[in-house]
């Protein structure tokens, strides 16, 4: 089941903040669950938000709430492993309104970082305003992930998932996919 992937250990970065006023418009306000606060970018062609997770994740859904008139007409979701280069996962086409918009992400690879590129702003100056941003998906169970890294394979009694080292990549697989 998908759950929020953003936690206190997730590191976030943004392309800009309006007038560099992070106290009033900083990135933290996208994640504070407060309807009165937001991240407000400065002007520019392409604004972005990047998130680095404490462990590999598989993104299955993106939720975003813009300020109408300051939304992005096109968003590109990119992802990468810890030391890899970003590759495009999908394109998203938000509406220019104030509603919470939900985008399912199909067949995303496991990544350690994501970057959301906000292209074609509805605002003439290229500003983006985001009241809420949430990334949902799955991550390996912490107890299982740590044990598996040490021995390159094994199974988890609690969730019946199996960790396998497959050449230069690793995967957590349900037992039926191993046969």
UniProtKB/TrEMBL annotation:
One of its GO terms (cellular component) is nucleus. It is found in: Nucleus. The keyword Nucleus applies. Keywords: Nucleus. It comes from the Eukaryota. Belongs to the NR2C2AP family. This is Nuclear receptor 2C2-associated protein. It comes from Eleginops maclovinus (Patagonian blennie). The lineage of its organism: Eukaryota, Metazoa, Chordata, Craniata, Vertebrata.
């Amino acid at each position: 089941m998908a759950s929020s992937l953003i936690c206190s250990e997730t590191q976030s970065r943004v392309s800009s903040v309006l007038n560099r006023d992070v106290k009033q418009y900083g990135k933290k306000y996208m994640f504070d669950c407060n309807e009165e606060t937001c991240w407000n970018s400065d002007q520019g062609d392409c604004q972005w938000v990047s998130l680095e997770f404490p462990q590999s994740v598989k993104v299955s859904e993106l939720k975003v709430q813009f300020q109408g008139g300051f939304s992005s007409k096109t968003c590109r979701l990119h992802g990468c492993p810890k030391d890899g280069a970003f590759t495009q996962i999908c394109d998203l086409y938000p509406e220019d309104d104030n509603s919470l918009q939900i985008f399912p992400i199909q067949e995303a690879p496991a990544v350690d970082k994501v970057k959301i590129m906000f292209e074609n702003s509805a605002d003439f100056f290229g500003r983006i305003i985001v009241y809420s941003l949430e990334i949902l998906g799955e991550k390996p169970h912490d107890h299982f992930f740590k044990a598996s890294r040490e021995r390159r394979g094994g199974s988890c009694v609690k969730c019946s998932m199996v960790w396998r080292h497959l050449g230069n990549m690793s995967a957590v697989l349900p037992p039926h996919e191993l046969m």
